[in-house]
Amino acid sequence: MNYEVNNHDSTPILEAKNITHNFDYPLFEDINLTLHPQETIAIIGVSGSGKSTLLNIFSSLLIPNKGEVYYNNKNIFKLSKNELLEIRRNDFGIIFQAHYLFRGFSALENLQISEFLSGEAINENLLKSLKIDYVMKQGIGELSGGQQQRLSCARVLTKKPKIIFADEPTGNLDHETANEVINVLFDYIEKQSAGLIIVTHEEEIAFKCDKVYKLNDYKLEQLK
Ligand SMILES: Nc1ncnc2c1ncn2[C@@H]1O[C@H](COP(=O)(O)OP(=O)(O)O)[C@@H](O)[C@H]1O
Ligand SMILES: [Mg+2]
Fold first, then answer.
1. Are 127 and 107 within 8 A, CB to CB?
2. The pTM is what?
3. Is 23 touching ligand 1 by the criterion CB < 6 Å?
4. Which of 63, 133, 134, 182 is deepest in the core (most CB within 10 A)?
5. pLDDT means per 10 residues in the chain (224 residues)?
């Protein structure tokens, strides 16, 4: 058995190794990151530093120029299309910066799609703690930016993912609501033994996580 000195006496659920990526110019080089069950990790950095790109790589949506990402010791970029789809559908919960909610459907219908795909029931208490239980009949266009953001969180949590990847999930929220949403995410991570990687430019939010990294000068610098 491999006992670690930190609180996470467990094998990693996600390991990124030697990730290098560039679009027109280099974004980052040789990035390593390890996520354990019940662990929360924040990535901060100035706009344009590549945070969203890095999260897209960790969450399997973008193949890096170099490096590997392992989910439960499986190299995700070597899996078959179907294996990867299963992981994305069942195990990875991705909260995007843009919401990608289905317009033309109600809030409830958006959650029912998640319920249908995952076979997990919508949790009424979750909707209450996100303060969106009373907007379920409204169309997406009738929700505020903050309500849409909380609905995206609810949609992702409904499927009970093993890892949540969140890109600026509190960007549209006031201070109090942002804290409430973060607490809902933390609570979920602890109870479900899941892991969280969150990209944010809000340091106060970031430092609530177990670990904080800053994407700076092509590297992840650990601040906490
Ligand atoms: N698909 C893409 N094709 C080309 N350039 C991209 C693409 N996605 C992002 N970029 C560029 O990569 C840089 C980092 O973007 P991004 O990862 O969104 O940064 P951040 O999230 O830190 O603001 C930006 O200069 C952006 O224009
Ligand atoms: Mg971004």
1. no
2. 0.92
3. yes
4. 182
5. 53 97 94 98 94 96 97 97 94 85 93 91 94 96 90 93 94 86 94 96 93 95 96
Q: Where are the alpha helices (DSSP H) in the chain?
A: 51-58, 81-90, 107-118, 124-129, 145-158, 175-191, 203-206
Domains of the chain: 14-222 (3.40.50.300)
Cα angle for residues 68, 71, 77 (degrees, 5° grid): 40
Ligand approaching nearest to the C-alpha of 98: 2
Task: In whole angstroms, give the CA distance from residue 74 to residue 71.
Answer: 5
Q: Who surrounds ion ligand 2 at CB < 5 A? A: 52
The strand pairing partners of 139, in sequence order, are 106
- At 157-168, the pLDDT tens digits run 999 999 999 999
Question: Inter-axis angle of helices 145-158 and 175-191, to 10 degrees?
Answer: 0
Q: Give the containing element (helix H, strand E) for 208.
A: none
Can you tell me the distance from the alpha carbon of 127 to that of 151, in angstroms, rounded to the nearest whole number? 8
Specify the DSSP class assigned to residue 37. Answer: T
Q: What are φ and ψ of residue 17, in 5° steps?
A: -125, 125
